[in-house]
Amino acid sequence: MSGSKSNHSRTSSLIGEKELLLGSDKGETSILSTTVPIEAIVLSAFRPRRYFDPKAMESLVESIEKNGILQPLLVRPLEAEKYELVVGERRYLGARKAKLAEVPVAIRSISAKEALYLALLENLQREDLNAVDETEGVLQLLALELERDLEEVPPLLYRMKNYRTQKSKSALGAAVGGDRLDFDFRGNVSPNGRVDSSRGNVSPDPEFEQIKLVFASLGTNWETFIRTRLPLLNLPAGLLEAVRTGRIKYTKAQAIARVKDEEKRRELLERAIADKWSLSRIKSYIKSLLDPEPEQDSLSERLDSTYKQIKKSLKKDRQLWQDFQNRARLKEILEELDRLLGKAPDSSRAENEDSASPVP
User: Fold this and answer.
1) Domain assignment of residue 37, yes or no
2) Residue of 132, 203, 244, 360 with fewest CB within 10 Å of its CB?
3) CATH code, domain with 80
4) Alpha-carbon separation of residue 220 from 39, 116, 209, 225 (angstroms)
């Protein structure tokens, strides 16, 4: 349990840790503010944010050319008088475009893991972060906190979701059976509405609690993230890039992903973006695309098929056409066909048919 409490404390203080690393007066290590050659700064191998809006970047470059960089970049020292960028990639890229030789920096001696925490938290708190980068950033943060490889995190989240679902079903089943059950946020249940302190309100996997605390520190619901954000990573490449670059909302991209034909999906994506389709309009179009009305034979094909069936029936069952009612009905149908074709009924033919003797 002591390890669990330690993880609880570490995770719940992520934001506070960021403030400390950025230079709280209480920190043991001071921040050195200075200027360094821009060529001395290197980008981290891990970059939480991959896309920057071109128009916003142009505006930033103009501001930097006019006023310089107002907020220093946060860097950490490396060997050979080099510095790794921790926070401020957008400003760094803007400074390079503005052709600045030197940039103001805040140098802080922190570990690679601490630097990654800061970069992730800094980006996850941005309002303009696209859904793809945000999703990948949350998964990276969870991987760091849980000390797992990145690819291990999504399966763990789905297992957590399945556990919650099973506990809810069990609670519902017991309630229907007559026992009232209360269950807390972690999905733990207690019979007869009493909290069972012996259970300790602990999920079967301690990592579940760490995950919930990370999401709580980010102000995000973990169940919503699993339901709406994780599926984003399975989008086709074209849709994923459209979401990352802000061309379309992730909810619309998820709807368009239902179209499996690559060419039709691409055409729909471009049309939805160009015409600014709403989500409901996209869904309506997809429904008509995936569930078209059954195609009917052309009129000529149906007429030809019916004619062949009549001839076959005449040869096979002559008694059928000797019936007076059948003959009268056939006469009505033929007259209706004549009218549809723009011809007047052939009275002589009708009279001949009425007076004709039955087919032997």
Assistant:
1) yes
2) 360
3) 3.90.1530.30
4) 38, 20, 14, 8
CA atoms within 13 A on the CB side of 192: 2
The span from the CA of 213 to the CA of 260, in Å, is 38
Report the b/e string of 294-303 with b at 16+ CB within 10 A. Answer: eeeeeeeeee
Reported confidence tier of residue 199, pLDDT bands at 50, 70, 90 = very low
Nearest Cα to Cα of residue 235 among 221, 216, 215, 255? 255
The pLDDT assigned to 73 comes to: 94
User: Is residue 111 over pLDDT 60?
Assistant: yes
Instruction: Give 15's contacts (C-beta < 8 A, 6+ positions apart).
Output: 121, 217
Does any domain span residue 82?
yes
DSSP reduced 3-state for 346: coil
35, containing H or E segment = strand 32-37
Of the residues 89, 114, 145, 207, only one is catalytic, namely 89
For residue 101, the enclosing domain spans 30-110
Helix (H) or strand (E) holding 132: helix 131-146
Q: Residue 328 has which token pair?
A: 């009268």
Q: Is residue 339 part of a domain?
A: no
Least confident of 60-64, 118-122, 294-298, 326-330: 294-298
183 has pLDDT over 50? no
Does a structural domain hold residue 157?
Answer: no
Highest mean pLDDT among 10-14, 177-181, 217-221, 274-278: 274-278
Q: Which amino acid is at 223?
A: E
Give the model's pLDDT for residue 177.
Answer: 58
Nearest to 7 by CA among 278, 213, 198: 213
Q: How many residues belong to the chain?
A: 360
Is 89 tagged catalytic?
yes
End-to-end, the C-alpha distance of the chain in Å comes to 101
- Which DSSP state fits 39? G
| Dist CA 348 CA 335 (whole Å) | 12
Tell me the C-alpha distance between 87 and 105, whole Å.
Answer: 10
Strand bridging mode 102-107 / 73-77: parallel
Q: How many domains does one find in the chain?
A: 1
The torsion angles phi and psi of 101, rounded to 5 degrees, stand at -85, -35
